[in-house]
């Protein structure tokens, strides 16, 4: 299966997420990455979602994101401590307010990414210039 991403992914592995999925107990999930079109979640339990469902997601912020998700793929990853499950979900926005809140989060992540890239580039430039000055 060919898979192509239309939107940039932002690694948010360091952020803890809590999701409320209808019919399941609230559980702590690790959000691996997010984009405008999807989200990747890691969990201790296998989560299977066959159709779009509405979830409530908290990502280490005061904001609550209401998202409609549909599972695209799931992988079981073996670790020293047992198995974890990584799942990819496609997003759909039915309310403009939820889309705008999600876009605000993505814009902030994009700015942080750009700032880090510029800082790395500046450090590399400094390393090249310093030897010439000595």
Number of domains: 1
What percent of residues are in strands? 35-45%
Helix segment tally: 1
Which radius of gyration do the C-alpha atoms yield? 18 Å
H/E element order: EEEEEEEH
* CATH architecture type: Beta Barrel
Averaged pLDDT: 83
| Unreliable runs | none
Share of helix, binned = 25-40%
Biggest sheet character = 6 strands, antiparallel, barrel
CATH topology: Thrombin, subunit H
Coarse structural class:
alpha+beta
Q: What form results from the Cα inertia axes? A: globular
Amino- and carboxy-terminal Cα gap: 55 Å
The CATH homologous superfamily is named predicted glycosyltransferase like domains
Lateral strand order in the biggest sheet = 2-3-4-7-6-5
Folded structure, characterized:
By secondary structure, this protein is α+β, with helices and mostly antiparallel strands. It has a single domain, classed as Thrombin, subunit H (Beta Barrel), CATH 2.40.10. Helix content is 28%, strand content 41%. The protein is built from 1 helix and 7 strands; from the N terminus they run E-E-E-E-E-E-E-H. It has a 6-stranded antiparallel barrel with strand order 2-3-4-7-6-5. The longest helix has 38 residues. The termini are far apart. The relative contact order is 0.16.
Q: Strands, helices and their partners?
A:
Layout: E1 10-11, E2 16-20, E3 27-34, E4 38-43, E5 53-59, E6 64-79, E7 82-92, H1 96-133
Antiparallel strand pairs: 1-3, 2-3, 2-5, 3-4, 4-7, 5-6, 6-7
